[in-house]
Design brief:
single chain, alpha+beta, Herpes Virus-1, Double Stranded RNA Binding Domain, 4 domains, 6-stranded antiparallel β-sheet, immunity, Znf_B-box, zinc ion binding
């Protein structure tokens, strides 16, 4: 059939009414062929029925039967025309990015519409019959589209006009009457609307996923930024801490060297004194020896005997047999190292506490006392920053949040995530209690201060300071705190208390499990006849330290203390400059020379 169609001219397959390739061609009794739609419409207007070509009249409207041979040849011709123009169309389309007219033979014009019945794209000129001829006006025109052959059923070469929901494929009219006969068939538009709705949901879901991932990207970027800030802060703090520790080691070594020198100088002085006495005795003995020798040569018997008694015994001298110059350095280094260990341990605790405080102060929150929670005997300042106890009960409004059994008040601010820090001035008081409390604690009955009951607190009772664990733990501090810092890490489950001025860690509650809001809690305790009348004061947090010199470069000479740093690339005898541009060396010290190792190496080398 393809060979035959290639020998015939296109004009032989054009309908004389629509001037287009036959669509469903039918043959009337006179032998002429027309599109079924075209001749039907023509006879519905022109009565009696007459052939448009030969004008033969028919008394009654003839039965129209599709000319299957001609229909097959017309379909083959339509496809061959489309294939002939496809290569040039595709080439021009690639250059222009537009759908081109299939009927233009020379310069391809831009297609204005594509006909789903003819499966051809038309420019404005070749589209004119579809706008003029009534039968062609019924064809379905759409905006220009490519690959119109994909809209033809490959098996029946008919337009794909329906959709089989059973097999989820597009089908033509012949498919519906054959292999898809018993299947659920719907129009393309109906299935389009259904699929479009599903696609809209998918689009919304994809957009949501995109937004979620964009938010996650920002979270990661923020995490990296915070990590960089933390890393810089930790590095600077490490430089400060280890510089101070190294300085302590150097000072300890210098003191040890001075002590050894003092011992040596004392030994040297003692030896010099002994030598001086010995030299004086030698001088006396030499003099006596000269006299004895001279007397021995005396031949005068009388004179010899007269002087014998004064010369027979040596002059008086010190008994040097038991006298020794003894210099013992044994135990000196060990004692010095023990003292150094104690000093380093003490300084390390102080420096670590100071470093932690500087870091935690970055998470400071502005805490204000909530007057609706205050026990009736508590007096709050107007700014909500101070609380003290008075003997008289105040007539306060009833509040479900108010404490009725302990001299307590909580802050308005709560902690339910992240990190938080605040400071309380406790100086001048003999008794006080500060910490954090769970939101759900019963404020109307006597409280049991313990983590199991939702309270994490420390308490000064006269001269003793305790952590309210179960049972309470008595704490040993070098001095009574004047200002207490409270740090909460909600996710980690940590509540730490610091002596801000020392600086020193007072106590840490670790491994806590927080499941609800936490509130700062304050108890100024009984004023005790005025002896404990000083208020608890919530202080503003000072985030800067005038004595912080972590950014100043520090030069350390290695000649004083030789430490093994096998992994360091720094030359052994070169000075080490620690500054913001050279922080890596301090980090190496952190990893390679912890306190115990440093002391061990000092002992080993000494």
């Amino acid at each position: 059939m393809a060979a035959v169609s290639s020998l015939l001219h296109e004009d032989q397959f054009l309908c004389s009414i629509c001037l287009d390739v036959f669509t469903d061609p039918v043959t009337i009794p006179c032998g002429h062929n027309f599109c079924k739609t075209c001749i039907t419409e023509h006879w519905s207007v022109n009565v009696p029925c007459q052939c448009p070509l030969c004008k033969e009249l028919h008394e009654k409207k003839p039965d129209l039967r599709i000319n299957t041979v001609l229909s097959e040849m017309a379909s083959q011709l339509r496809l061959s025309v489309q294939k002939e123009t496809s290569s040039s169309s595709e080439e021009q389309l690639a250059n222009t990015g537009e759908v081109l007219c299939d009927y233009c033979t020379e310069t391809k014009q831009k297609a204005l519409k594509s006909c789903l019945d003819c499966l051809v794209s038309y420019c404005e000129t070749h589209l004119e019959p579809h706008q003029r001829i009534q039968a062609l006006k019924r064809h379905k025109l759409v905006n220009p589209v490519e690959n119109l052959e994909s809209r033809i059923c490959k098996k029946h070469e008919r337009p794909l006009e329906q959709f089989c929901k059973t097999d989820q494929v597009c089908v033509c009219g012949f498919c519906i009457e054959s292999e898809h006969k018993s299947h659920q068939i719907v129009s393309l538009r109906e299935e389009y609307e259904a699929k479009k709705a599903v696609l809209s949901e998918t689009e919304a879901e994809v957009q949501k996923m995109i937004k979620e991932r964009q938010v996650k990207i920002e979270d990661f970027k923020q995490s990296v930024k915070l990590s960089k800030e933390d890393a810089d802060r930790e590095t600077a703090t490490s430089v400060q801490v280890f510089t101070a520790l190294i300085r302590s080691v150097e000072e300890g070594l210098a003191q040890l060297i001075d002590l050894i020198k003092e011992k040596h100088n004392a030994t040297e002085k003692q030896a010099e004194d002994f030598i001086k006495v010995l030299e004086e005795e030698i001088s006396e003995l030499t003099k006596r020896n000269t006299e004895v020798e001279a007397h021995s040569r005396n031949k005068d018997h009388l004179q010899f005997l007269q002087n014998f008694s004064s010369l027979k015994t040596p002059p008086p001298t010190k008994d040097w047999k038991t006298v020794k110059v003894y210099s013992s350095y044994e135990g000196t280094v060990r004692t010095a190292l023990t003292q150094l260990e104690e000093t380093l341990s003490r300084e390390m605790k102080m420096l670590c506490a100071d470093a932690e405080l500087k870091k935690y102060k970055q998470y400071s929150v502005d805490v204000t006392l909530d007057p609706e929670t205050a026990y009736p005997k508590l007096i709050l300042s107007d700014d909500g920053k101070q609380v003290s106890h008075r003997d008289a009960i105040q007539n306060l409004s009833a509040s479900p949040k108010r404490f009725l059994s302990y001299f307590c008040v909580v802050g308005k601010q709560s902690f339910s995530s992240g990190r938080s820090y605040y400071e309380v001035q406790v100086g001048g008081k003999t008794d006080w209690l500060v910490g954090v409390a769970r939101e759900s604690i019963n404020r109307k009955v006597p409280l049991t201060f313990s983590p199991q009951k939702g309270l994490w607190t420390v308490w000064l009772d006269g001269k003793e300071i305790k952590a309210y664990t179960d049972p309470p733990v008595r704490l040993c501090l070098n001095s009574k705190p004047q200002k207490v810092g409270v740090f909460v890490d909600y996710e980690v489950g940590l509540v730490s208390f610091y002596d801000v001025d020392a600086p020193a860690l007072i106590y840490s509650f670790t491994g806590c499990s927080f499941t609800e809001k936490l509130y700062p809690i304050f108890n100024p305790r009984n004023n005790n006849g005025g002896r404990n009348s000083t208020p608890l004061i919530i202080c503003p947090v000072n985030k800067t330290d005038k004595n912080d010199h972590t950014s100043d470069p520090i030069v350390l000479q290695r000649s004083t203390v030789q430490l093994e740093m096998s992994k360091s690339k720094v030359k052994p005898n070169s000075p080490l400059q620690i500054c913001p541009q050279n922080k890596c060396h301090c980090v190496m010290m952190i990893h390679y020379i912890p306190l115990n190792n440093a002391v061990h190496l000092l002992r080993k080398n000494m």
